[in-house]
Amino acid sequence: MTRPVPGFLWGAATAPHQVEGNNLNSDWWVREERVPGMERSGDACDSYHRYAEDMRLLADAGLNSYRFGVEWARIEPAPGHFSNAELAHYRRMIDTALDLGLKPVVTLHHFTHPRWFAEEGGWMGDAGIERFETYVKAVAGILDGVEWVCTINEPNMLALMVGMSRAAQAAQPGETKKWMSPTVEGAARPVLPDPDPDVGRRLADGHHAARAVLRKDTDAKVGWTVANQALTPTPGNEDRLREIRYDREDLYLEASRDDDFIGVQSYSSQAVDENGIVPHPRGPDTTLTGNAYRPDAIGIAVRHAWEVTGGVPIVVTENGIATADDDRRVSYTSEALRHLFDAADDGVDVRGYLHWSALDNFEWGHWKPTFGLIAVDRETFERSPKPSLAWLGEVARRGRP
Ligand code: BGC
After folding, report:
1. Active-site residue flag, 39
2. Cα separation of the two ends of the chain
3. Ligand 1 atom nearest to CA at 265
4. What 8-state DSSP symbol labels residue 270?
5. pLDDT tens digits, residue range 67-83?
6. What is the model's pLDDT at position 164?
7. pLDDT tens, position by position, 287-339
8. Atom of ligand 1 at shortest distance to CA of 153?
9. Is residue 225 within 8 Å of 317, Cβ to Cβ?
């Protein structure tokens, strides 16, 4: 890419449960209390109170966008009871972003649910879709001036998590295995399980219901964000790849064919052979979430999303690396951007790059995998921007890698 793309989103992303702290009414909080060996979110990064400082750091560095989420468990603490104070809180976040020159990309659902929703049967319960739709109607009222809305984050990972929690409930006493985050791979679980396609189809219905509400009540572009494993076939295993990839990704990409954009999220790439997905090779390059170091993943992912959706515009809503070595983060991201812009040069309509993550945050049961452009002291909450933030800000100011 030789010239900047006008209006390109250059930003960073977070999710409410991972950074806000004290999300007491959520099903993940309940899980953290119950599951042995799981680390707790606790105060997280206290971004619930410190969001303005977070946003200012991103804007001062040169970024022009911030992806953050609103938390259902706070907005609707009990079924049908909406908190105006919490809605006003999130509206202040939107205003703060706009005042700082950051285009807000707002996620309505990022893995967590109100406790009552989970207890009622969650997505697969009779009222699942209707409950989500009612919540989205309430949030639509605060989205004035927001151009980009993601309905559900990684529905494919969410479908996998629903399956994991069903399996945990069905486990016999004494059968408890050591806790492992759904976003981490390693010796104990070399390959992520398949998402349940029935749950996936239900989530697609939820996404379409939310999209209809948002199109009626807001001017935002609407999409959802799909996890993409950038799977590639070993010779002769193209059919096997297609079969495996359908339940993991394509079902979700197909469901976004009428969306305004598709959020692509990718971190690493894996091969598929006659036995299925090949576990990530272990080596000095392995990231803190057990992934292979594969900055080319995002290029594979956006090309695949472009093909399956039939040309829906793309925003990279997450891409990054879990590493304690910030030089490595810069190398990874600079190479990833090269692959991304190669795809753009080949005609893929890419509208933005939102790095995961703005902050070192709660990685779903673990604190060790650090993805942030900004380090956070977990006791004082002091923020320390890493050199990678200044570096990405410079790229953003230039408007091209
Ligand atoms: C999720 C994030 C997560 C990130 C890194 C994605 O699966 O949307 O919440 O922290 O990947 O693992």
Report:
1. no
2. 8
3. 6
4. E
5. 999 999 999 999 999 99
6. 81
7. 999 999 999 999 999 999 999 999 999 999 999 999 999 999 999 999 999 99
8. 8
9. yes
183 lines ligand 1 (CB under 6 A): yes
How do residues 108-118 score in pLDDT, each as one tens digit? 999 999 999 99
> Where along the chain do its domains lie?
9-398
In short, whether 157's Cβ falls inside 6 Å of ligand 1 is yes
Residue tagged 């980009």 (tokens): 148
Complete DSSP assignment for 134-190? HHHHHHHTT-TT--EEEEEE-HHHHHHHHHHHHHHHHSPTT-PPPP--TT--BTTBS
| CA gap 381, 50 in Å, rounded | 9
Do 223 and 263 meet the contact criterion of CB atoms below 8 Å apart? yes
For domain 9-398, give the CATH superfamily.
Answer: Glycosidases (3.20.20.80)
- Angle between helical axes of 326-345 and 387-398 (0-180°, round to 10): 20
Q: Measure 173 CA to ligand 1 centroid, in angstroms.
A: 30
**pTM of the model as a whole:** 0.97
Instruction: Give the ligand 1 atom nearest the CA of 320.
Output: 5
Q: Hey, which of 318, 329, 357 would you mutate to test ligand 1's pocket, going by the most ligand atoms within 8 Å of its Cβ?
A: 318
Distance 12 CA to ligand 1 centre (A): 13
Q: Does the CB atom of residue 154 touch ligand 1 within 6 A? A: yes
Report which residue type is found at 172. Q
